[in-house]
Amino acid sequence: MIRHCVFIRFRDGVPTSDRQACYDDLAILCAKLPGALTFRSGVNVSPEVGMDKGFTEGFLIDFADAAARDAYLIHPEHQAIGGRIVSSAIGGPDGVFVFDLEV
Description:
- It comes from Phyllobacterium ifriqiyense.
- The protein is of the alpha+beta class.
- The chain has a domain at 64-92.
- The protein is 38% helix and 28% strand.
- The chain is built from three helices and four strands.
- The protein has a four-stranded antiparallel β-sheet with strand order 2-3-1-4.
- The radius of gyration is 13 Å and the shape is globular.
């Protein structure tokens, strides 16, 4: 199983409704993709002050395997949602941190 972890530093002016719309659209996409097992999103609730490096929220997607994750990465809807996230992040791509774990 692959756990796809994405953490975001949204710009201050990005409305909560726009952020939530990205998560909602990702959840809809994952629900129709073979091999996408779970989707979760939320804000950072860690008590470790400063350790978040400004990444205040994010999402996790569990995929059955690397092939399912790879199909998601090239999916046109993922590309569009990812573009919205990057354009809303502080510094564009610098405001998005992606880390995949094999679990």
